User: Fold these one by one.
Assistant:
Number 1:
Amino acid sequence: MTMRTERVAVIGAGLSGLYAAFLLQRRGIHDYLVFEARKTLGGRILSLPATAHGNADRVDLGPTWFWPDMQPQLGNLIHDLGITSFEQHQAGDMMIERSHGEPPVRLRGYATAPVSMRLAGGMATLTDTLAAALNAKSILAGEAVRSLRCTGSKVEVRSENLAGTVTTTWVDHVLLALPPRLIEANLSFEPALPRALAQQWRSTNTWMAPHAKYVATYPFAFWRQSGLSGEARSACGPLGEIHDACMERGGAALFGFFGLPASVRRNATEDVLRRHCRAQLARLFGPDAATPKAEFIKDWASDPHTATTLDIEGAAQHALPAANAPLGSWNGRLTGIASEWSQQFPGYIAGAIDAAYRGVEALTLHDRSTSSHGRKWPI
C-alpha cells in the first residue's frame, strides 16, 4: 500500500469535480487530487465522435443543452473559456404519435423560450477544456475511492486503481463531486454518516440515472427539407421525446429519450432497441430515417458509476436539491459539490457549476481563517 498527503481530495471528475479543481488552481491551491473511478473524465457528460473519419463533430449521450439567459454563471464560463455555442434547431413542424395503430400527426412547431443552446463539438468540449487547464498529475482516472475515515484533524482517503493497487491519501478536506445517492451506496465512512443524513442522500434522485438516449446520424437533415423541425412526442415509443441533433460542423442527427423504464430496457438487447428506434423514426420522419449512418445508445441506468438499484427501480424524476443535514463528526471535512447539491439548478450542468463554485468558496474562506495548522490559504 502506498501513501500520499494532499490538502484537498475531489471525488469525481465530472463537471463539478473538474470545475472545482479549476477554481482551486485559480486560487493558487495546487496540492489537490481528483479521483475518478472511470477510465475517462466527464462523468455524466458524454460526447462521442459522430464518425470514424476524424470529423470534429460529436454526438451528446448525456446533457445536451444549456440556457445562458437563465444560467448566466455557466454562460459566462463557456464564454470565458472561448467555447463556441449555437442555438438548438427549432424551425418547422413537429410530429405527434398518440397511440398504436393511429398514424402520426403533423402539427405546427413552436420555439421554446429562452432559447436552448448547445456547444460546438458536444457538451464534453466544456469538460475537455477544463481538464486541459489542470495539472494532469493531479487527475487520477481509473482510481475509485472506497472509503473515508475521519481522524479529527485529517481525512484518510482509501482508493483502488484498475490494477488493484490500494493507496491511502491524507487530506484536510474532501469535495464530494458525485451524486449523494451514489456516495451513500458505494463509499464507506468511519465514523458512519449520521442516520438522517444518509437517509436524505439515499432519497435524493440522481439526474440522468434512470434515463437512456438514442442518437442516429444521417448523410443530411432530410426532415428539415420536408419542413420538419426534427422534434416529436410519442406515446407509442420506444422513444418518448425526439429532437434535432444536427451538429455545428454540419453533421446531421436525431436523438431521443427512451420512454421505456429501465426495468423494461434491461430485458431487451441493444440490437432490438435499435431496430425499434429506427422503425419509430421512419414512422415519424419517413423512410430515410430507417437507414442511419451510425447509431448510439447510452443507458445510464446500466452504468454502475451513475446509477444504483434505487435509480433503476425509481421514477425518472428531476432531482431536488440534496438536503444540508448535520454532518456530525464530518462537519468541516466534507462538502457536497455535485449538481444535486445546487439549490438553483439541481441536476443541470449549471447546477454542477453553481455547487462547485459555492463549495470551493466556502472551503477557502473557512480554511483561510480557521486552519488548524495556522496556515493561510491563498486568495
Number 2:
Amino acid sequence: MLTVKVHHREPGSVPVVIPRPVPGSSRGNGAAPAGQTKPEKPAVQGGSFGDILSAELERSGGLKISAHAGRRLAERNVVLGREDMLKIEGAVQKAAAKGSRESLVIYGDLALVASVRNRTIITALEGKDMKEHVFTNIDSAVIIS
C-alpha cells in the first residue's frame, strides 16, 4: 500500500497528491499482440489512491501530469488530492472552451502551465519560485480557488 505524506510548509498552503502510474501501463506501445484485441479497461477496485486516481484519469481521458511536472511537484513535496485535480481539470476545461492552447493555472500558491490540447500539466512552480518569474508561450491564465 502506498503511503502519501502531506507537507504543509505555510498556513494556507495547498496539499497536492502526485498520481503514480498504474503498474504495467508504461510497457511497449500499448498495442495488443497480433490476432488479439485489447480488452476494455475495467474500473479499478483496489490498490493505492495514486493507482486508482491514475487509472480513473486515464479511463476518463482526464488531465495528465508530465514527468517534468511530476518531478517538480515531488521535489517541492507538493501533494495534489482528487479534489485538487478536479479543480485544476475544470480550469483547463474552461481554458479549452475559450480556445486556449497553453494556459497558466494559478491554484493557491501553485502555478501550473498546462497544454490544453494535450490535457497535460507541463510544469509546476510554487510560491517563492514564482517571484520575478516570466511565463512564456501561454495564451491564457486561469485563477482558481
Number 3:
Amino acid sequence: MSQSEIEPRAFLTVHSQFTSIELVQAVVEDLLVQVSMGEECRHWIGLALREAMANAIKHGNGIGDKHVEVEVCCDDEEVVLRIRDQGGGFDPDSVDDPLAPENLLKTCGRGIFYMRRLMDEVDFRFAEGGTEVMLRKRIVPDEGTEEVASSS
C-alpha cells in the first residue's frame, strides 16, 4: 500500500515543549501494540520518534509558543510517522557526520543519524511555515503473535 493510501490512526498537535515528547511517544506506542508491532521494533521506532520530536522542538521551533504536529499512519504492513514543526528548515546534507573523527566527542548532531539507522526510510520536506520529517518502518510482529496466527 502506498504512503498516500494509509489512513491516519492518530493526529496530535502539541506545544513546542520537551515534555510533549512523552505524550506523543505514549500514543504511538499504544498504536504500535494494536498493530502487533514487535517489542524491539517499537523500541527503535520510539527512539527515532523521540529524536525527530526533539529536533522539531529544539532546532525547528525553539521552545515557546509554536507547536509540533504528529500524524501516525499504519496498516498491517508499515507505520508512517510525520512530524511537522513551524521552523525555517535546514539542509539535511549539511549536518555533520557524527562518525567523523572530529565529531566523535560532540554532544549534538546524532538525531538524524539515529533516525536513518533505525527506520526503513527517512524523508524531509520543506515548505513555507515548517519542516516535515517522515519516518517509515515495516511492521515486524511479535514472535508470539506469529505462532498463534500460524497454529490457527
Number 4:
Amino acid sequence: MSASENELSRAASAYLRSARHQPVLWREWSEAAFRLAQTEDKPVLLDIGAVWCHWCHVMDRESYEDAGTARIINERFVAIKVDRDERPDVDSRYQSAVAAISGQGGWPLTAFLTPDGRPFFGGTYFPPDDRHGRPSFQRVLLTIAYAFERRGCEVA
C-alpha cells in the first residue's frame, strides 16, 4: 500500500479498490474496524454502495475525494466502506435500519453507527452543498460528530 492509498487497496472487491486513492481513511467491514471505533470512541461512518450504482460514484467524486470532507471524516469518524454485492447481509441490515430512521433507502447508503455498530442516523446521497432540500454532506458530518461527542450515550 502506498502512502497515497487507504486500506482499500488490498480489498478483493473492485468497487472497494476503486476508492483506494480517496483521502478518506477507509476500512473494510471487520471486527478490527469496530474495535478501532470503540478504542477511539468515535462513531462509524458506513458507506454501502456498488460498482453499478451511479449515485455512489457521484458521492465518491463530490464528497469522498474532497480533501476538506475527508479531513472531517478522518478526524471524527472511523470510515467503513462496503460493497453491497459482496456483503448483502450488511446491506440488508442497515438498509432496514436507515429506512426506519429516515424513511428512505437505496444506494449509496450513508449510515452513522455507534462504535459497537448500532445505527442512529442515515440516509442515501448527500450533496456537497445544501440543495434540493437536502443538507450538505459536510453539515451532516459535523452535526453527527457534535451530537455524538456531546450526547454519545443518547444517540442510539
